[in-house]
């Protein structure tokens, strides 16, 4: 039995205390309980909504077309007075030099790469990039088709009977003898041909003023070169292979080109209307280096041509004798 005067105090549940407090002290405890329940309810409902919104955003992003960087506009260059293709290619850093520049603008320039005029617009490095992808696929099927036809013919062709060892050896010896006999003749042919093709007259016209012609109109008292008949725009060619020593304005000579040849001599081409080469460029015999004109101290259109022992004025030698020594007949 429990002891007298001691009563065990009954425990009340937290829920009951909450209700009691709500009844006596107002809603101080009941309201937090309701708020917590509401918060729990709100939290439980907001999670699915956020997930759905995120999913929709991801779906919209996946469906949107991927942005593609706009292609760079092609570079162009407008020709100005005094320009020529090799000069433009060097200044504009065109890979492949003037030949690549000409190949990409052949339809605009025309058949003669030296006939460019002020105002002409040239594309710089665009034609090759667009043409390359279209050419490669076109060639691949043809190659596969040829390989297929070759394989079919090989499969259908009857196999030749193996030759006797003695016959094989005899055929090889005869073939080797034919190749060795033909080799000297083949080696001599290019050298003989090169001597003919490497040197030529600078223009097709005749000579109007001979070398060493005396006269007060020349500062040296005589003509230091040959004057060739050439109207404005006539193609001027290098008389032989060499390297361009200088190309540009030269005072009384106007626009000129000076080329150093393998034998140590220099050829000069003066009074040009335009230039097709630049300093340091290698040229071959017969290659166009510019167009004739009447720039500098000139009485009319013609080509002034000199052969020198140095690149400078005053070291002239007989140009007619030089050309004849190299097989050029004038």
Q: Could you spell the SSE succession in H and E letters?
A: HHEHHHEHHEEEEEEEEEEH
Low-confidence stretches: 15-49, 127-143, 184-193
Q: Percent of residues in helical segments?
A: 40-55%
Distance between the amino and carboxyl termini: 153 Å
- The CATH superfamily of the domain at 207-325 is known as Glucose Permease (Domain IIA)
Task: Report the radius of gyration as a whole number of Å.
Answer: 46 Å
Secondary structure category: alpha+beta
Total DSSP E strands: 12
Q: Biggest β-sheet, characterized?
A: 10 strands, antiparallel
Strand percentage lies at: 15-25%
CATH class of the domain at 207-325: Mainly Beta
Nearest-integer average pLDDT = 74
CATH architecture of the domain at 207-325: Distorted Sandwich
The best one-word shape is: elongated
Could you please say which CATH topology of the domain at 207-325 applies here? Glucose Permease (Domain IIA)
Oligomer designation? single chain
Continuous helix count: 8
